[in-house]
Every structure is written in C-alpha cells, then in structure tokens.
Amino acid sequence: MHVFVTGGSGQTGPTVVADLLAAGHTVTGLARSEASATKLRALGAAVHEGSLDDLDSLRRGAAAADGVLHMGYGGDFAKPEEMMRRDINAIDTFGQVLEGTGKPLIITSGTLVMPLNRLSDETDEPLADGIAGFRVAGERACLALAARGVRAIVVRLAPTVHGPHDHGFIPMLIATARKSGVSAYVDDGANRWPAVQRQDAAQLFRLALEKAPAGSVLHGVAETGIAFKDIAETIGQGLGLPTASLTKDQAATHYVSPFMGMLYGVDAPVSSIRTQQLLGWTPTREGLLQDLRHGDYLTVDEEHA
Length: 305
Known about the structure:
The protein is of the alpha/beta class. The protein is 41% helix and 20% strand. Strand 2 (26-31), helix 2 and strand 3 form a beta-alpha-beta unit.
C-alpha cells in the first residue's frame, strides 16, 4: 500500500513510518520544512512538500496514494479554534479525494476526549466540552466520511506515548521536578494515567491501515491506567528527589501552567480491549514505569527540561 502520511516527522510519526516501510508499504510524507524532509528521507520515505494549510498540496498527496494517515496537528494550543478549523479542513479535503474509493483515512485523536473518573472504552461518546474537546470535531468529521465510501478510522492515543526522545507530558513533569526539587502528584495520587509505548502505537496504526473496518474507533492504550503517585515516585527515586502531595490549588502554581496542574490530577483510565480483539493488536513493549527506570527520561537533562 502506498500511504500518504502527515505528521510523519514528528514525535510518534517516524516510528510509524519505519513500521510501515518494514512491513512492505511505501510512504510519502508531508513536509513543510527541509528538516522534516531530511528526517523523512533518512527513514526511506518519499517527500511531498506542503503543509496542513495548503489544501491543494493535501489533495495531490492523497490522490496519489492508496490511503492516508493523518497524524499532523499543528498550530497554537492557545488558539484551539484555529487548530480545529485547520484539522477539519484537512480531513474534509482528504474526504473529497477518497470519497467512493473505499480507501482508508486514519486520523489521530487522544483518549483524553473520553469521560473521566471511570474506565471508558471505544463505545463511549467523547466529550466535546472536555479537556481535549478540541479533538472531537475532527473525529466526527472523519467518521462521517464512512457513509461516503471512505474507510474512515479514528485512532485515539494515550496521553503518554513513551519511548526515546519523548517531549510530551512526562518530560514536562520531570522538568518541573528538577526545577522545584520535588516530584509531586495531586491529592492522593490515585488518579490513573494511560500510556502506550511508541512501537506498539506504530503497530496499531499499521494494523488500522491494513484491516480496520470503516467507522472504527480504536484506542492506542497498552496500560489502562497507572496511578499518578507511582509515576511521581518513580521519577523521584530516579532523580534522588523527595515525593510530595499537592492540593489542586498548589498544583495550579507548581507546574508550568494551571492547565498542566489540572491535567496531572485527572483520572482518565481507558480500555483498549475492543481494539485488541478487533485487530489482533497485542502491545508487548515495556511499560511506562519501566521506561522511566531504564530509558532516557531521567538521564537526558537538557533535552527533557
């Protein structure tokens, strides 16, 4: 299969591209900079110059492919409406090209769109007014294309897709611990945080492209929910720092922003059992706590700070 990929030079994208190529697929990646193009070529992918704002470029890329994997999500998170508009425009553009072909269109979302404080699964409705509600419109735009002859699929990734050179929520947590001298959690730290290792996530994207039916909603989650206190204690042990509980008010000023203080306190367990059963996906790589102990998270200071 010839796959047109957006976001292929990002954090998770290169692992996904490498997995697709290793499985015998060919990949053309969208690149808006020479740095992105260089990274894609080094992986063995072809390069298609353009950006998510260049809809003509997206049309050409999709038209030349057997399927589209849309992982890119650019913009300023302080302006979620602009990000949503860009994402929906890209999805609609892909839909126009793929309509009636039965070709796959896979888009990326996150499990933080799901209801909090209970175990949710793929059949639960996402929350448009939740903490990641800005991703829901894109999900709906994609799934609506299933009725127009597109094999439309949504992959929701855990908030932490861990592995080497991560620059997401966990490195931000570690940077705060280094700066403040304490590895903290909110309240009793019993709130649960789902995770998936990057190579397992890449395999899921490939399986989705190869065989997920139209209208599928898939959860890229290997660990349903790790107690946040365990994450904080593992970081504290690795850095030789004490661990402490924060109230919600304290968390609002301890972390880099009030939003992050709130986010690190959410209870967001998510199941992927239906996804695993549907696709035969079996995540087997190390868990987040093991990665924290043995990976590069606690040994690379400046890169994760």
